[in-house]
Amino acid sequence: MVLTAALLGAQSDESTDVRSKSVKPKVFKDGDYSDPVYKKLARINGEINRMKKDEIKLKLAELKLDTRGVKDILKKRLKNYYKRKKLANAKVQPGKSTKYNYLAFIDFEATCEENNDSYQHEIIEFPIVLLDVQQNKIVDQFHEYVHPTRNPRLSHFCTMLTGIKQETVDKADPFPVVMDKVTKWMKKYKLGEGNKFAVVTDGPWDMQRFLFPQCQLSGVTFPKWAKRWINLRKIYSNFYECRRCGISGMLENLGMSFKGNPHCGLDDATNIAMIAQHMLEDGCVFQYNEFLIIKLQPVGSEPTTKVENKKPEDTGTDSDEGQEFGGGDISHDSKGPELGTLDAELASSMNVLQLNPPDSSGENVSDLLEYYKLQSS
């Protein structure tokens, strides 16, 4: 099926010189689609939905856009191209955009044993890949191995899975020292101190199952920046309207392949960042979609945690305004196990939470082995 000239092919209505009329941009609130341009976009979207994959690829190639990916992703890419073009031509400003200056991609590797659900994990690799949102470019990375203290000897299963050798962690700094290095590295980019940023992970496990228990074990205050994050699996499936999948599946859907070694924390974080780059290019608005609830217990008992899910939204049009981490202290207190000041949002929900309840989103956060299975799926 060839798209009608009035909708897609012809450029006459798109090239009308409205700039010479000094028309002020129209700003519509979220959910306000009264401008006629939205009716035109609805017709365009309907025609794109009826196109075959080869026809979509031909149109994308004609527009010099990326032609890789499965049909659902190609459709989304073409729709967003015309959405941006039509809104700009009609002087209608989109209501929302990604609010962050940077996205920080984190994927921890931790000690583990095969078929041991009660094993207490310790972080042994701490990678961060930093992406400048405006440039849509990876600008830096932080990478340190960590010396475990509870179980200093790595299991054979852990070494085979992560590729991390015993001598590597033997020479590494303990977690509190690495956290100090993280804080200094973040200050270099003024993350949280002038530049807004959000942490992005592949699932809920990194902050809840790895970082929070590690901070408790090491006597380090859980950092404020880790209390909210973007679960890439969720935002990916919501944006492209596809089934939730792991890193390899997301890459495959985009027509890409994994670069590096799976379960190498730095390589995982880099590939997650590459996925996000394509999503930003396709028009995705990045927003927080998960946050950690910390439930304080009586003196002498350890705090418990729960991952709270924000309501899924069409991340191509909406953002979570007011949830950006833009200021405040990014440092931690390494002198004791205090949790630090809880956000009002977190504190208000503490009395209704339990440890490891069933996740309403379908994510299983109680089993590290399941995490590894999902990552490799």
Description:
Pfam families: RNase_T, SAP. This protein has 377 residues and is α/β, with parallel strands linked by helices. Helix content is 36%, strand content 15%. It folds into two domains: 5-93, Transcription Termination Factor Rho, Rna-binding Domain, Chain A, Domain 1 (Orthogonal Bundle), CATH 1.10.720.30; 102-376, Ribonuclease H-like superfamily/Ribonuclease H (Nucleotidyltransferase, domain 5). The chain is built from 13 helices and eleven strands. The strands form two sheets. Strands 3, 4, 5, 6, 7, 8, 9, 10 and 11 form a nine-stranded mixed sheet that branches. It has a two-stranded parallel sheet with strand order 1-2. It starts with a helix and ends with a helix.
Helix content: 25-40%
Total helical segments: 13
Strand content: 5-15%
The radius of gyration is: 23 Å
Q: Briefly note the structural class of the backbone.
A: alpha/beta
How do the helices and strands follow one another from N- to C-terminus? Answer: HEHHHEEEEEHHEHEHEHHHEEHH
Gap from first CA to last CA: 35 Å
Query: Mind telling me the CATH superfamily name of the largest domain?
Result: Ribonuclease H-like superfamily/Ribonuclease H
> How can the largest sheet be summarized?
9 strands, mixed
Shape: elongated
CATH architecture of the largest domain: 2-Layer Sandwich
Q: Give the tally of β-strands.
A: 11
What is the arithmetic mean of pLDDT? 80
CATH topology name of the largest domain, in short, is Nucleotidyltransferase, domain 5
CATH class of the largest domain, anyone? Alpha Beta
Domains, number:
2
